[in-house]
Amino acid sequence: MLNKTLLRPISWLAFISIAAPAGAAAACEGIDSQPDKQRVFSEAWGTRYNGQRFQSAENTSINAETAPGLTLKWAYGLSTDSPRSYPLVTSDTLFIGDGGRGLVALDRETGCVRWENNQVKDISTAIVPATIDGQPALVFSQRYSGVYAASAATGKILWHSHITRNPVPMYSGTPLVFSNKVFVPISSQEIALSFNPFYGCCTTSGAMAALDIQTGELLWYRPTIKQEPRVTGRHFLFVEKQGPSGAPVWGAPMLDTERGLLVFGTGQNYSHPATQTSDAIFAVHIETGEIAWVSQFTANDAYNMACEISPAHPNCPAGLGPDLDFGAPPIKVSLASGKDLYLAGQKSGDIYAIEPETGETVWATKIGAGGKLGGIHWGMAASESLGLLFVPISDVRSENDDPGRNPGLHALRLNDGTIKWSLQRQNQCTEPTCWTGLSSAISAGPGIVVTGGLDGVLEVVGADDGKRLWSFNTNREFTAVNNIPTKGGGIDAHGPMLADNLLIVSSGYGSFFQEGGNALLVFSIAEGVSP
Amino acid sequence: MNREFEPAGLRRRLAATAIDFVAVPTLALLIMLVTGVLEHADDFVGNQVVIKVVLLGISSYLILNGWLLFKRGQTLGKLMAGIRIVSNTTGGPAPLFRALLPRALFFPLLYLIVLPGPCLIPMLDLAFIFGKSRRTLHDRICQTSVVRV
User: Fold this and answer.
1) Distance CA B149, CA B130 (A)
2) Which end of chain B is more exposed for a tag (fewer CB within 10 A), N or C?
3) What pLDDT digit, counting tens, does each position of A331-382 carry?
4) Cβ–Cβ pairs < 8 A, chains A and B
5) Contact residues on chain B for A202, CB-CB shorter than 8 A
6) CA A394 to CA A115: how far, in whole Å?
7) Are A5 and B33 a contacting pair at CB < 8 A?
8) Interface check A239 vs B, CB under 8 A
9) What ipTM was assigned to the predicted interfaces of this complex?
């Protein structure tokens, strides 16, 4: 029999358990739980393989005329305050990684849950479409456990693959599925393990891996550093410093289908000696993984998270580097002249136009002061018809009196990199976690650019002139369709998405002291595109 | 329990826990330095890292407190806070293998307090201290009480 002595602590714990957000799923009633997969509104993280994050009029009815009519259709409370998944939208379903709940298929109209799979929690990438055994499938990564393929009809896991070539891989970049392969960006947990002063930093290299789409088996593996690590010194008498290391791939790749090249950026080295492949753009052949060319844009950049504690931390590289990754995936564009260019944006705020055949720089432009969180952080967008590249600048933590500081959205001419217009962002909040810049990736559509700010403000801007057409502050509380406490915050990471008549964004991102939140917001205009 | 001993107050127990909370990982870091465990990326493969960290925690706890527990029924923190562990049935010294060593298994769980979900485990342990006898869950399992010296 329970006496008062036992009841008191049990009731106290029960109170805490109930007060904590439980996240009851709102299952669909009267709706077919089998999603319709006939119409898929994106094929990769960059919307199309070319990475432009441009949604054409065939795939979105949101444009300069209709955008002012956007209204909030529904909000869904995610089970994380730092959403890192980017949805896949079909004609009736929105697939997304829902933090600690796992993979969910939400009804596009109401936000109710068609199915959910709790096996893989904390999905860290976008959900991308695939076909496995002739059936529609979903491919995504979990930050530490690897790459997964799941049935789009039921959510059942079809295969799981974990890269063993790197003992401590980190899967931050969204995989790209093409033909019979899945291309998987590989970063490394050593960036954080370096915190531990007794850890001998560092031995692992970033990489790109290719897996068989049917089975998940490894087809090829391309490390970004070819030298084997060696002991370079010691601290505390025993702990071995090692290098080279780093050059992680934490952004999604871009695919040039015409040339058969997979193009991706790398980050900094974690330890010395620095290599010629850090802060670089790689182009590799998709069939073999052989390197076509590598172009480095910042040399001798060695940095890891130990440096955030102190430059005197024994694992912080001497001659501390500026940490100027290429996290934003490269973009392929075709100019009006017929010439192709690859465009790469760096955390430094530099934008490079690159010759696809050789990797040589055609033009370069710098916007903003740059920094560890950008500069250009997660992703740019382009419109070939307007001949413009849209560049979001974060400039978080740049000194306010830095004359180069330029947070906002900037449109560059594709042919020469000159700036056509700039839309600077103004302070809209005072909290220390609230910043003005644009860190998240942006999206473009017919005559529009969609941005999400670290202050939580979602905006639709005219692509040709940079005028604000529509704005919505997501940094507030929402009533969610799944009835859990739901609050927006800063918009970061994958940013907004255009699909059919919907504008979708996850608001809240508390990973690096930004404003956390858990709101998945779906805005709409009345009419969609023709099926 | 021998009624001539008063249960240790909450403040003293928390102070003792706080001291051990800092002292044990400090020793664990020194062990890491000497042994090289968790020094290389390969050490972090699979779940081995969890097993290694737990074993490291238990080892550090026993190296730091084993002799004190055996001789005086105290950890370093309890020694400094002026409290000690006694058998709940006799009020005398708690038996080593049934009462004192199992506490070493509980100690690494204390660090779950920093994780949003698993923090409920040490909180559950702690919650029992609000009972009349001021005994945590691990006190009850080990059939011990913590009393003022």
Assistant:
1) 21
2) C
3) 999 999 999 999 999 999 999 999 999 999 999 999 999 988 889 999 999 9
4) 62
5) 41
6) 37
7) no
8) yes
9) 0.73
